[in-house]
Design goal:
The chain has 139 residues and is mainly α. The chain is 52% helix and 4% strand. It contains seven helices and two strands, in the order ααααβααβα. The protein has a two-stranded parallel ribbon. Helix 4 packs parallel to helix 6. The longest helix is centred in the C-terminal third of the chain and has 19 residues, at 85-103. It is globular and about 45 Å long.
Amino acid sequence: MKVKSLLERLAEGESVCIAEGYLFEFERRGYLQAGAYVPEVVLEYPHLVKALYEEFVHAGSDVVLAFTYYAHLEKLQIINREKDYEPMNRTALKMAREVADNTGTLMAGNICNTGLYYPDDPKLIQKLKDIFKVKKNNC
């Protein structure tokens, strides 16, 4: 069965539910600590991440949103895990795709806010553009 795209659904007047909250749920369950909030659990407990994706779909999410929030170089550098940038993102995306394919739902990547933005600093603005470009290209 072909899964309708997001645009097809919206054109037909459908609502699309995208459930998110993996970061807080894994913190609540004791797998993440407050602070950098980097989704290390993706590499350390991938089976739990995949299971939570499935739980969110079961709860009604139409989209499996990959747990890539805060998995960018700025945050990974804080905890000396920048080498995990690509494996963390690719693993989260791969699992999200698998769950979406198995459940007939849509799949999406995720980006997050940053503490680097200062509107009057062109160098930081360019750094941010580069960070998001790398993130987008890895999704």
